[in-house]
Amino acid sequence: MSKSIFYHAGCSVCISAEHEIVKLIGKDNIEIVNIGENRSRIEEAELVGVKSVPALLTPTNNVLHLNFGASMADVKG
Amino acid sequence: MSKSIFYHAGCSVCISAEHEIVKLIGKDNIEIVNIGENRSRIEEAELVGVKSVPALLTPTNNVLHLNFGASMADVKG
Cβ A67–B68 below 8 Å, yes or no? Predict the structure, then answer.
């Protein structure tokens, strides 16, 4: 199974969700991408369907949006 | 580790999220609760902090709200 990708923007809601997801899925099964710091990944995130962060892209290419996070517009702004 | 609980309301967004979560965490590690059908669980869901469905209550009692789902008010209404 390929890895999941967890997109976040470094906010406290994101970090809290990251810890929960890593505990549930296991850190070896997930790539963590901070699109606040690594802005070159923003376009990729949008292409796969990320509409807000934190979000989890599953190995089957479905996006689970978590919590009531920051909108992509907020991260870019 | 105790189980996670996945609260949903039977909508298509919920079912899609359920399938993804079950694949990621494993069905033996999660209890699925349809609060649309099993309305006696609504109060419990609200007490643990569920604000919208689908949502995942983790074994550490944190709630991850998934997708852009239905609000608790919609489920009750």
Answer: no
Domain boundaries, chain A: 4-65
**The listed CATH number (3.40.30.10, 3.40.640.10, 3.40.50.1400, 3.20.20.370) that belongs to domain A4-65:** 3.40.30.10
Interface probe, candidates A6, A8, A20, chain B, greatest B C-beta count within 10 A: A20
Q: Tell me if A20 and B62 make a contact (CB, 8 A cut-off).
A: yes
Chain A contact set for B16 (CB, 8 A): 62
**CA B71, B75, B76, B77 torsion-angle sign:** positive
pLDDT in tens, B27-71: 999 999 999 899 999 999 999 988 888 899 999 888 898 875 455
CATH class of B4-69: alpha beta
What values do phi and psi take at A52, rounded to 5? -155, 160
- The model's pLDDT over B23-37, given as tens digits with 9 standing for 90+, comes to 999 999 999 999 989
